Structure to design on (438 residues):
């Protein structure tokens, strides 16, 4: 999401408005309410995303004509079926699992309200209370509440998996609001692709009101994939067929059977994100659930979702990406939260590599085989981040917030934090594993 960087210091900060626009119901105008400098919108047609647009506000208004003009400039959808519930088709039952520490009560309520508006025939909602033992029990309207007293999001998700009755288990978080067609898009994808064990979707920011929220979008590209074509991720060669040091390569296959791109199995964030993922219940049970030593609430801070994707693909499953399955995530608004998050990403990524190798030593060869290409990519990426600042716009023609965030949230500092997280990840994983086994 390049181009959302800040301009010269001294100018008043102005946030960016985020919304979804369906071409069939394009509004007459969108107001910036004198606060916003620009609009960042997901454009959909027949329920299917076509792309993102960024439009600066002129006199606090964007007209219908401007919106339609930028919509027409987006790539046309070819041979894409409308997102609608088909007649006489049995969609899979789905259990929605939300782990929570009950610290973000307003966020959880907003999440549950969005789930109540879902357009899906057969689903249940399970809230996993992950507070420590001895916390008073709670009842939540519209959800089945279960307890998981072992700390960590992996333990909570595994508890939700055990309680689930649906054929599919969809996971989201208590700082997320889902689109009304979220489960419909997931259910249709699973129904059309029985070979896929997991489906991820498009995770967008719910708001971009602070410099830290914009920094996450610019530095990390937000959460998960930001493409608008459905693909299926598959391992190119089975583990036993590789030479010792050959890379583990994943191909992203389009609906026409052609590869759209290829990347390493160990590339972080290439499959999706834990705030928007759904798994066939039996496949996840066969996998043993999530690694208890990984994830938020443990010393490793994260990596449990990415490890799960890699483990499924390593075992021969496919992982699909369905951009029509949209959720909206509330990014951390403050600079301190952003810094902890980025450092945690580094810890989680390094820890998941160790976890994969310990689970199956056959990962070691492909990991070593990936080192030359991975090192070049990481070096190039981090050099760019270390050189840049959020006060240096990347695309002058795109809308930007109008101030300079604190120096601590600059891209160079975030890159150093992430690298520091990677460096300490082995010790963090071993500490987490000892606490789990003890």
């Amino acid at each position: 999401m390049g181009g959302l960087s800040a301009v010269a210091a001294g100018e008043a900060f102005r946030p960016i408005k985020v919304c979804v626009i369906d071409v069939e119901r394009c509004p007459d105008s969108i107001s910036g309410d004198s606060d916003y400098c620009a609009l960042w919108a997901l454009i959909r047609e027949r329920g299917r995303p076509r792309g993102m647009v960024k439009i600066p506000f002129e006199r606090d208004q964007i007209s219908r004509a401007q919106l339609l003009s930028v919509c027409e400039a987006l790539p046309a959808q070819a041979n894409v079926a409308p997102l609608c519930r088909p007649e006489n088709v049995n969609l899979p039952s789905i259990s929605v699992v939300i782990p929570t520490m009950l610290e973000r009560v307003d966020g959880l309520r907003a999440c549950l309200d969005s789930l109540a508006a879902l357009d899906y025939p057969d689903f249940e909602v399970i809230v996993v209370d992950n507070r420590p033992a001895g916390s008073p029990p709670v009842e939540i309207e519209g959800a089945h509440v279960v307890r998981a007293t072992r700390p960590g999001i992996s333990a909570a998700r595994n508890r939700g998996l055990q309680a689930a009755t649906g054929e599919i288990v969809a996971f989201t978080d208590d700082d997320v609001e889902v689109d009304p067609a979220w489960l419909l898009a997931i259910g249709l994808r699973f129904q059309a692709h029985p070979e896929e064990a997991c489906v991820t979707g498009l995770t967008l920011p719910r708001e971009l009101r602070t410099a830290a929220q914009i920094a996450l979008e610019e530095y990390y590209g937000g959460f998960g994939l930001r493409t608008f074509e459905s693909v299926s991720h598959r391992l190119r060669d089975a583990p036993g067929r590789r030479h010792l040091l050959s890379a583990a390569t994943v191909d992203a296959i389009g609906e026409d059977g052609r590869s759209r791109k290829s990347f390493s199995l160990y590339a972080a964030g290439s499959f999706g994100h834990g705030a928007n993922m759904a798994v066939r219940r039996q496949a996840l049970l066969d996998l043993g659930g999530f690694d208890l030593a990984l994830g938020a609430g443990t010393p490793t801070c994260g990596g449990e979702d990415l490890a799960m994707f890699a483990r499924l693909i390593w075992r021969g499953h496919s992982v699909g990406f369905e951009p029509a399955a949209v959720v909206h995530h509330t990014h951390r608004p403050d600079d301190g939260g952003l810094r902890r998050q980025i450092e945690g990403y580094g810890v989680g990524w390094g820890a998941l590599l160790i976890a994969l190798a310990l689970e199956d030593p056959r990962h070691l060869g492909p990991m070593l085989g990936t080192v030359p290409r991975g090192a070049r990519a990481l070096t190039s990426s981090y050099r760019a981040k270390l050189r840049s600042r959020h006060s240096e716009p990347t695309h002058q023609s795109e809308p930007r917030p109008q101030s300079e965030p604190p120096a601590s949230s600059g891209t160079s500092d975030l890159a150093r934090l992430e690298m520091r997280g990677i460096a300490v990840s082995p010790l963090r994983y071993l500490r987490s594993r000892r606490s789990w086994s003890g």
Q: What stands out?
A: The first strand starts at residue 16 and ends at 22. The longest helix spans residues 411-437.
